[in-house]
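User: I've been trying to design a sequence by hand for this structure and keep getting stuck. Would you show me what you'd pick, starting by listing the structure so we're on the same page?

Assistant: Good idea, let's start from the same input. This is the structure you sent:
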């Protein structure tokens, strides 16, 4: 935070060491998809 900011309006600041970024979102389980499946998904997408 800056000493020049009097207040923050409408913002949520999560201080949890990155826990929410890794496990808190709706895409948090994508790391469980095997590498081969990512290749198949990419081909289905048309790339």
């Amino acid at each position: 935070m800056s000493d020049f900011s009097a207040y923050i309006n409408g913002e949520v600041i999560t201080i949890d060491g990155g826990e929410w970024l890794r496990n808190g979102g709706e895409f948090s389980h994508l790391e469980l998809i095997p590498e081969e499946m990512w290749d198949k998904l990419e081909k289905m997408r048309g790339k």
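That's my pick for every position. To get oriented when you compare it with your attempt: The chain has a mean pLDDT of 78. Residues 20 and 26 are 11 Å apart (CA to CA).
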